[in-house]
Amino acid sequence: MKRISILLVALTLGTVSQARADVQRNFEDAPSNPLVTPWSRPQPTYVVQDPGLPVLQGDAVHAAPNFSNVIYLNNCKAGGGCRINPGGNNSTSLIPTSSIPDVQSTVQPFAYSDAVWQQVVACVKQSYAAFAVEVTDVRPTSGNYHMAIVAGVPQDVQMQQGVGGVSPFSCGYIPNAVSFSFANIYGGSVDDICWTVAQETAHSWGLDHKFDNRDPMTYLSSGPSRKVFQNSPGACGEFNARNCQCGGSTMNSFAAILQTFGSNVPTPPMVAIQTPKDGDTVAANFPIKAAISDDISVTKAELRIDGMLVSTQTTSVGGVYIWNAPASVGQGRHKITITGYDIANTTATVDINVTLGMACGKPADCDKDTDTCVDGRCVAGSGVQGGLGSTCAVGTECASGQCASNADGEMHCVEMCTPSVDGCPSGFTCLETGADVGVCWPGGDDGGGCSTGGNDAAPGLLALGFVALLVTRRRRK
């Protein structure tokens, strides 16, 4: 008698523990009673491995001579089908042996076109792109490998109707395993076939079902049609959360595969800032748009302005992440930094510089006669209340929102400037307060421009301690 037991949903309900909704939200289509709710798609399952056959765990996986990181996708088209003998798992035999069928069996060939097949192969490769896993549809001539049969129907190996795939399963790595993804029942849906292949191959490495509709180990059809191994712990389960078959209450499918095979050379995301362009002059609350893509999956995008984290987004519109700059961003030159993250937390970062305010080359370029020009933008000049150089006590008294004091206690309204640009108006000096960051402070010759050196005023001002300027910013409502 074959010493295996099929783990179906009905057999696990007695040990189900409900996940907390505020922790796990990725199960929108979980029915309240799966026994009376028809499955929306043929569901993959697993079969417990005969304990008499080898199962590798921990360091023994990598030390074993029959360990392999190769997945051979077999569509059974060569020879008009795949012959499978019952017995211990051995994918390398001339006629493979498997613990799944009861008798010698033949799996029908993949029922769809070669173009569909190539899409399936590409999808499975993408599913495992983050890991040191080799996916091929050419049978290796030597060595060890997992054989993923992607063809046929469940009845080909004496499985019941409604089973989308099946794999041997144990709490560890099963060498030279043979898994079955019954592609011919999915109507040519590449995403469904790919999802099943990813789940069945991973079962043979000890991964349980996961109660997360984004992950290939899930039973749930909601969420993205193309599933991605999630790099986060989550409850095990089919249509309800439960403890995991191999212990513990959660499973991280990404981490489990990574521990078994190691990481592939990471491919960072591609980040392109679409709006604004580098060097643009922008208005308040200006929009920021960045297109971010990855060969596997983008998990989040971060916006920083002048090095400070402003916002993190986990969703996009067609791969484009959109923000509006906060109202607290004052006039002047600012660095916009966008960072994209993939599923393995590999990052890519792009910087641009923009100027908030009307563009100008000289004060006469500004619309208002009372404005002056600082670093290429129009700002309130010294002739108006709160303009550049006005005396102040707090930032709210300044048009720029910035009131600075020196070591002698003098306080003036200032504008941010870049010392290397030399862009302060006549009568002001750009005093450095950080790495190529400064403020326009009263002082300097009447020839226009500013410098921390090169005029009579700057050396004396530096000696008085102006580099220790204390800046207070206006609180915006």
SSE inventory with pairings:
Elements: H1 9-12, E1 43-48, H2 59-63, E2 70-74, E3 82-86, E4 97-98, E5 105-107, H3 114-127, E6 134-136, E7 146-150, E8 163-169, E9 178-181, H4 190-203, E10 234-237, E11 241-242, E12 250-251, H5 253-261, E13 270-275, E14 281-282, E15 287-293, E16 298-305, E17 308-313, E18 320-324, E19 332-342, E20 347-356, E21 371-374, E22 377-380, E23 402-405, E24 411-413, E25 416-417, E26 428-434, E27 437-442, H6 457-463, E28 470-473
Parallel strand pairs: 1-8, 2-6, 2-7, 3-4, 7-9, 14-20
Antiparallel strand pairs: 3-5, 8-9, 10-11, 10-12, 13-15, 15-18, 16-17, 16-19, 19-20, 21-22, 23-24, 23-28, 25-27, 26-27
Supply the key terms.
29% strand; mainly beta; Immunoglobulin-like; single chain; six-stranded mixed β-sheet; disordered N terminus; elongated
Strands, total number: 28
Strand order of the largest sheet: 1-8-9-7-2-6
What's the N-to-C terminus distance? Answer: 76 Å
> How large is the count of helical segments?
6
Structural class: mainly beta
Kindly report the average pLDDT value.
81
Quaternary organisation of the protein chains: single chain
